[in-house]
Amino acid sequence: MSDHAILRITRESDIRNVKALIVGPPGTPYEFGFFESSSTWRGERGEEWSSAQGLESILISIQSLMSSNPYENEPGYEDAKSPEDKIMMAHYIAKIQHETLRIAVIQPLEDSLGIQLDGTLLPPTNASDTDDEETCFEDEKAAFEPFSDLRKRRFLWYYESYMQTIETAAQKVKPQEKFQQMSFEGGDNAMAGVFDYPELKRRIRFIKEAILNETKNWAVKGLEAKKRESRIAVNLQRQYEQVVEDLQRQKAFAIDLTLLDDNPFVWKMTYFGRPMTHLDGGIFKIKIHLSPRFPDEQPRVFVETPLFHHRVSKDGVLCYLPRRTEEMKHHIEAIVEALEEESPPYDPRTTVNLEASKLFWGSAEEKKKYYRALRKSVERSTE
Ligand SMILES: *[C@@H]1O[C@H](CO)[C@@H](O)[C@H](O)[C@H]1NC(C)=O
Ligand SMILES: *[C@@H]1O[C@H](CO)[C@@H](O)[C@H](O)[C@H]1NC(C)=O
């Protein structure tokens, strides 16, 4: 799970049943698309490890085919150089970019959010609203959808990138322009359709709204779970108390934690910037939303105080990576690390503010600009 691009999930009840997801590489027309293996992978009994490794190498080779110029992967077109070829190449890349957004981002998210083609929402099913163990188990048997939550969380990270891709790409095509067929396309392998960026934009906005609504709704479901004294409510309450106790013992004055309305599904965190760091003197309000299906659904974390930071999206979504996903202790640690890290390696998959990232990993002059903007938001945070 350390590679941010290839994720494998094994169903606990059957370790030979593996599903995989590839996140399209940045800088290619597949950028931040979610490509899920359509068949589950089944290893032979006793060969689980080697077959899983086999899967890994298959995934890596699939990923390497997702290059910035897919045209050159087509047999016979490796050396396409004439002006006509170049025009076709650009058109092919534009098509892939459009269809990556439509098929590998929008459609699977709409499906898992119950958004229908006419833009209305399906009523939520009863099964997903309960944390009754039996029902969850039945539910899990019916649909093994390990990436549904991951896609939602990453969608919030990559939202700005999707929108920017659309802005740029929309300028290069006419509204409703038809896809041209390449000479190597045919049969099942042909991409037909039209460019419709305004429609993609509308659907992406709607998806974001639906995810944010769902996140808010966790608090409501959570309070109900607490009233029922359900197992997850008790578990999260206990984790909260443990984390607070640990923080007090460690005299970790930089962090203050409370529950919103005594609800163990909404943690309010205040982070005080440590002396001698770029966040020195800042006071930041952070809200951690937890799902009644935690840890299968991971927390969604929002920095509510405006903060110019490469890990914080324009909407305040914080991108952080906990070492262990099932313990809130690790989430809190990772949130602080994400805010404080001084010189992280550049990885576009985990940087969620395009302007801040460009400056942070830019020239010396740009980096200074980054820190000036960061300091400004730190100063404003106490007003
Ligand atoms: C779902 O909940 C509603 C209202 O609580 C109930 O009337 C309905 O029978 C339930 N459906 C299923 C499939 O359990
Ligand atoms: C989100 O919630 C608001 C307020 O309840 C509602 O008006 C809106 O239609 C919802 N949007 C989506 C996409 O679910």
From TrEMBL:
Q: Which positions are tagged coiled coil?
A: none
- Keyword Isomerase on entry: no
Top-level taxonomic group: Eukaryota
Against PROSITE patterns, the record matches this protein to: UBC_2
Matching entries from InterPro entries are given as: Ub_conjugating_enzyme, UBC, UBQ-conjugating_enzyme/RWD
Domain UBC core: where?
235-383
Q: Which SUPFAM superfamilies match?
A: UBC-like
Record Gene3D superfamilies: Ubiquitin Conjugating Enzyme
Question: Per UniProt, which keywords does this protein have?
Answer: Ubl conjugation pathway
The protein's name: UBC core domain-containing protein
